[in-house]
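Supplementary Note 3. Input sequence used for the single-chain structure prediction.
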Amino acid sequence: MVKEQKKIIFVYNSARYLYNFRLSLMQSMKKRGWQVIAVSPYDKYAEKITHAGLCFLELPFKRKGQNPLKDLRLIFRLAQFYAHEKPTIVHHFTIKPVIYGTLAARYSKVPGIVNLVPGLGYAFSRGGYLKHIVEKMYRLAFSTRTHVIFQNPDDLNHFIRRKLVRPEQTHLICGSGIDTEFYSPDRSPQEKDPPQTTFTLAGRMIWDKGIAEFVEAAKIVHAENKETQFFLIGDPDYGNPNSVSEIWLENLQYTDFIKRIGHKDDIRPFLAQSSVAVLPSYREGAPRFLIEAASMGKPIITTDVPGCRDIVIHGQNGLLVPKKNVTRLAQAMLALADDPVKRQQMGSAGRERALNVFNERLVIRKTQKIYAKCADI
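The predicted structure, written as discrete structure tokens, is reproduced below.
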């Protein structure tokens, strides 16, 4: 009798994020003989997933939609899909796939359910009634058998403290992992003795990333040190109610020392020419931009908040500043602008930390150990 091939389904709210953050994990499971299916709303990255030799299936749903009837239909569609595909494991990412996917998987009697909570997101940061509802939904979803991965200890402890998840269900894996050879100081040419100190922030253009603080600090720094330049890389995230408007970003063109650049799939050429990576975020899961910057040997300035402080050891591979504090952010920028030796030392320490902590091989190995608890692999 031929042994039936095991099947794993990855469910995300974006094909772009599945491709950019989980392609290596999906390919590793295929190499182990598993049938792999990637599920998300369709975007141009869906074709890249199929070109990489993986199966992609479209499941349209809106990230910010709050229509209960549509949400119930999403649960029903997922349940039908799981019942038809009969996966051994489903792995959900982000709030809607995690909550609705888990409920659907329970109803369809999927043997292994794995969830990743990549930060607490908009609902938790704003609090109030929405946070209350989301907590109830998490508590319901995690009330039975499921493994839940957190990307920083603050989020993990918050869920346990609020009794949203049981301690024995939880796992801590910092970040989605990166290819440290791809993000290497030697893979992209760097300018020798650049005439300016360049500070770069890359990510989704949402206010909680500290976009306004970065711009205000840039104005202070440039007023004191004209040999500084600042780059904002990324697009507005209109699926997020906290998105920066395109009009606000377009107005930056009138500031000659701040340059706004749209989203880039490959951030390496920009990091290679950057002196310092900056992310004054209010809260994160495990910010990939900072991990990529560390892997490329760049010093980091970020906020002393969950997620960010797990990437940076203050004074070793970067500097931590209080969130929403423009003055302290500007002071940290000026300190590194005036100290190229310290920038070099911090960059080297960051590279070492990326190799030892954030290497995707380590992350994949830890994730596969969780899969092994769900199925005999």
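Residues 229 and 256 are 9 Å apart (CA to CA). The radius of gyration is 21 Å.
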